[in-house]
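Title: Request for sanity check on VWDE protein prediction

Description:
We are preparing a figure and want to confirm that the structure record we downloaded matches what your pipeline produces today. Could someone re-run it with the sequence below and paste the raw structure tokens into this thread? We only need the token string, no images.
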Amino acid sequence: KLMSLALQPVITPKLVENRAHLKCVYERPPSRQPLHYEVLWSRLSDTGAKEEIRRDTTQQPFSYLEMDGVHLRLGDTVFCTVTAFMKDTPDQQSLPEESSGFYAGIKFLPESLQIAEDGKEHVLTILSTVPITCSGNDDSCKITLQLSTEDLGKTGQLVGPPNVALSSCQVDLQALPCTASGCAAAALTVMAVTDFALDGDRVTRISARAAARSEPLWRGYTPKDVQVTVQDLPTGNCYSFTDPHIITFDGWRYDSGRLGTFVLCGSARRPFAVHVRQRQCGRSGASCNCGVAAR
């Protein structure tokens, strides 16, 4: 039986005749006689066990496997295991060498987020590890993903509205040549919603789903979601009341008896502002709040 030959198999994504494939590439060791290779393709089942997809015998230092949506589906984690042998002695094989698992599909990076109600934006990347396929000669070949959020709440509390805000409710993954980092990517920003309530840390799930008119391979595919844990922070309050007395977020108190429309508060980070309108009220000439507008 042969010793280990350091075949070092690696799985990479490839686009072949506008169809998505995975390619298992391995080193060709020096040998006096031509070597043959047996390539076993397998994937993780729902129970975590490896199940065989296909077994190839070839003289080439590579093997292809098409993502046909049946034998190999989006969302599968795939492995290739390679052994080498000589044609005249097929029963004397090298030690099998297995590649690292290759996740074929779309994933969020990072796979989880820890953010706080501090107004800061966080970048979330959506990455496709397999080629984007399109039928026909479409110059704008892409996959559109619809994004949604769901508050998972926490133990002992009712589920509430989403605790995060996304910069977009859909993203497009444009078809590009595959690289070591992936085949297509899009980015969006995530920010915690400051809800002015001490409701504890909460978890929100962000999900993506391919649009209905996508290619058959992608249609109905649901990528793994990402969970965002939002740290609850104490929030300040400001007040304007009676004729009017004003208390700022940091506790300063003063009075404003002027008439007109004024900016009560605003944000330097995002388009948020509260305007108040003051007019004369009563016989003493005092001014009172008569209207408020916020954006």
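Thanks, this matches our download. The mean pLDDT is 87.
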